[in-house]
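C-alpha cells incoming
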C-alpha cells in the first residue's frame, strides 16, 4: 500500500463549498475546534478579495490524493513590528484524520513559512486536552513552552492552552 500524496496549494473556488461546510459543522470540526456559529460566507468574501493569501494571514488547502482534505493557516503575530512570527494551525475533514495527514500538512506549512518569510519563530498552540496535536507538534520539532491558563472560551467554559514554538535555527526531525 502506497502512502497518500499530501500537498498544500492556494484555496481555489471549487474548495469554498467544502471549506464552508467544514468550518460550520460542529461534528466535522471535532472536539477542540467548535467555537459556535459564525458567518458562513466569511471565507468566500476573503477569498474573492485576496485568495486567502494576505500579508497577515495565509490559508492553504490540504490536498490528499487530489481531493480537498482541509486547510492549514498561519497568522502573522508579534510583540514588536521588527520581530514578527507566524502562529499556525490545521483543520482536516473528518475522513482525513488519524492517518498522519495533519502531521505532513503542518510539516509542509513549516517548510513553506521558513522558505518564504524571514521570520525566526513559528508558534502553535492547542487546548491542554488535545494530546494528539501536542504529539504532532513535538514530532515536528516544536518545543513546549508552557501552559497559558484560561486563554480560550469554548463549550461554556474557559480552557487552558499549551504553547509551542519552533525557531528557524532549531534542529528538525
Amino acid at each position: 500500500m502506497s502512502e497518500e500524496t499530501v500537498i498544500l496549494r492556494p484555496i481555489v473556488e471549487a474548495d469554498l463549498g467544502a471549506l464552508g461546510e467544514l468550518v460550520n459543522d460542529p461534528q466535522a470540526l471535532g472536539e477542540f475546534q467548535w467555537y459556535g456559529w459564525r458567518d458562513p460566507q466569511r471565507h468566500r468574501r476573503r477569498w474573492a478579495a485576496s485568495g486567502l493569501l494576505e500579508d497577515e494571514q495565509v490559508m492553504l488547502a490540504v490536498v490528499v490524493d487530489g481531493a480537498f482534505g482541509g486547510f492549514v493557516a498561519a497568522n502573522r503575530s508579534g510583540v514588536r513590528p521588527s520581530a514578527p512570527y507566524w502562529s499556525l494551525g490545521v483543520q482536516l475533514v473528518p475522513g482525513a484524520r488519524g492517518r498522519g495527514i495533519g502531521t505532513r500538512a503542518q510539516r509542509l506549512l513549516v517548510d513553506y513559512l521558513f522558505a518564504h518569510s524571514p521570520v525566526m519563530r513559528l508558534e502553535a498552540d492547542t487546548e491542554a486536552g488535545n494530546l494528539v496535536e501536542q504529539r504532532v507538534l513535538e514530532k515536528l520539532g516544536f518545543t513546549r513552552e508552557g501552559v497559558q491558563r484560561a486563554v480560550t472560551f469554548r463549550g461554556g467554559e474557559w480552557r487552558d492552552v499549551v504553547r509551542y514554538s519552533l525557531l528557524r535555527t532549531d534542529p528538525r526531525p
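note: Residues 26 and 36 are 8 Å apart (CA to CA).
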